[in-house]
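Exam prep: given the inputs below (a chain plus DI6), describe the expected output before reading on.
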Amino acid sequence: MTKPSGAKWDKVWVNARLATMRPGFWPYGSIAKDALAEGAPANGAIGVEGDRIVFAGIAAEIADKPEQFAHEVFDAGGRWITPGLVDCHTHLVFGGDRADEFERRLGGATYEEIARAGGGIRSTVRATRAASEDALVAAALPRLDRLLAEGATTIEIKSGYGLTVEDELKQLRAARRLAQLRRVDVKTTLLGAHALPPEFEGRQADYVQLVAGELVPRAASEGLADAVDAFCEKIAFTPAEAAAVFDSAKRHGLPVKLHADQLSDLGGAALAAKFGALSADHLEFTSEEGVAAMAKAGTVAVLLPGAFYFLRETKQPPIAALRRHKVPIALASDVNPGSSPALSLLLMLNMACTLFRLTPEEALAGVTRAGAQALGLGKDRGMLAPGYRADFVLWNIARPADLAYWIGANPCHHVVKDGRIRA
Ligand code: DI6
Ligand code: FE
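Solution:
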């Protein structure tokens, strides 16, 4: 083990079990697969300088004399450490809630029927338009805190409930403000093409023109959006309309993502791939051709088991094809008031395993490495490796699979964000 000569690292965590989530080999450090039990050696260490990891691995000499390696030494107490969790698809900022629709759906109404009758997304649009930016921030904060308590260090937040230029920008500003109020990185996504606002009834083309011609340029020039998304679905926007929005995003230098093939196969995955999208999300109805196109384009698959569960969907996303084509699989909460009122990313791990038959290891990669890739952050987030951001979580678990196994437990011991312990 060689250490940079002279200077010591700022900090070192010792006595840890590392789930590095590095691809290409067993991601759980030096601990053999069959030794994943209490008693497996806790000989991992993480060295940190500033907000970066400089070392993550096994080095006995660090554990023996940690104070020779760093100014500050932290004892992980034998705990497992994973990268900070990434929730790469949320609609965290919104007004009101839709508990009434939940009851109507339980009484037999479908999500699509409610949407066509002016409820659904449009009902959240009414509440979001009526809310001030401050009110949106205040409503979102407790939801954000639930995600943070379970180890999230980076989250994505979409607009899509304003559907006017000013109300969409208001949502994005609220999302940006959340990042100033808590120690979390927020990536914002403009989802102007989420639903047709009522005042554009019968004039869908005009609304698409507003999004592509005015909203995308404003969000880009004001630095409020990190990406652009669209809901491509029979009850929302056609592939051609989504493409028009994406063309505008590209002209303004913004990467794209797509709500694709959630309720029907409109070729959304292939469309996303054609635009080199960071991710295509949902994918329940995606065909093998769509998966192949994603693989070629490097587009990440984002699975949203909360929405699948809450809408009582039965059509499974094409997991076998995603594996066959080696498409990275991310998992996210899809927090939103209509189809996924889910404030637990760990629950999504459990659901992805029980509902989609992901392995616990795939599920964990989905909220770390692949989640980071889905946001274009794969170069320095989602793994424990030198050069990566010092965002990590110490867990009270016996083995990584416990994160997917327990329902309703929160074994998060504490979080390190940018090299500093988060209170
Ligand atoms: N798909 C979803 O799961 C959310 N948006 C989308 O395009 C649901 C949004 C809602 O029902 O409010
Ligand atoms: Fe969504």
